[in-house]
């Protein structure tokens, strides 16, 4: 009887751990397939859902907006409450509320004026004047500020004139503007332009000076032309300071416009307020003041909204939530 073990191949001898020799696979042994290599399971790979990320971001933005709107309501409500209590009890503690109209009287004045077109026409004329002077100030102030901030020779040429004219308040230009321009409309627009021009110009110059020089040198090394340097490096880098100048300039422009309308205007919110003072119509005076405040708030809000659209990266920068 033949032993069955003689027909078998000798079993491979496994080396011991002390020998330190790896076993050599036989030629007949098939190579392990790639699918047999252990891979981590899908649930083990950390993944971030885009939907969850967007929901988180929207929730944070909504929460921030709710908090901002709530604080704004508290602030305006406190001012309104102070006005209401002062006029209700006719308080007199150095500030006298004896002749100040109540909120209800101002509301009645609004309902009476709103029935006529005079109030709306005055608002439209003031808005037209402020936008005309403001956009002229942007068209001149921003390019000139970029050139002054970038080129030393341009700065040496224009800055002495700027420093001489800048301290002159816009209201002091009213007599001169009446002599310079052929009509009151042009002179009022000029006063508005003067009020907005210098904040826009100086903030643009500061924005160019604050720009990192490494960015300019890198753009030059990459072969950027002078036009591309201004368009792609200097202007975007200066935008935060430019919009700061726009916000400040808009406020100064409204102050200048109202003063000019009170002195030499025949229409506008400033003229409406001054006429009410001449007629001793106290509710109309307060209505004009509130109208000026809300118009200025709306203009500043539009500037802030445009800035957020043109500079979306600031919303994610540290301290950049606006």
From TrEMBL:
Membrane topology: Multi-pass membrane protein
CDD domains, per database record: TM_PBP2 (cd06261)
Keywords (A to Z) from UniProt: Cell membrane, Membrane, Transmembrane, Transmembrane helix, Transport
GO cellular component, one term: plasma membrane
Pfam family for this entry, one: BPD_transp_1
Localization (cell): Cell membrane
PROSITE patterns: ABC_TM1 (PS50928)
Bias kind Basic and acidic residues: ranges: 1-11
Transmembrane segments: 66-85, 130-149, 187-208, 229-260, 280-303
A biological-process GO annotation: alkanesulfonate transmembrane transport
InterPro entries in the record: MetI-like (IPR000515), MetI-like_sf (IPR035906)
Function: Probably part of an ABC transporter complex. Probably responsible for the translocation of the substrate across the membrane.
Family: Belongs to the binding-protein-dependent transport system permease family.
Name this protein carries in UniProt: ABC transporter permease
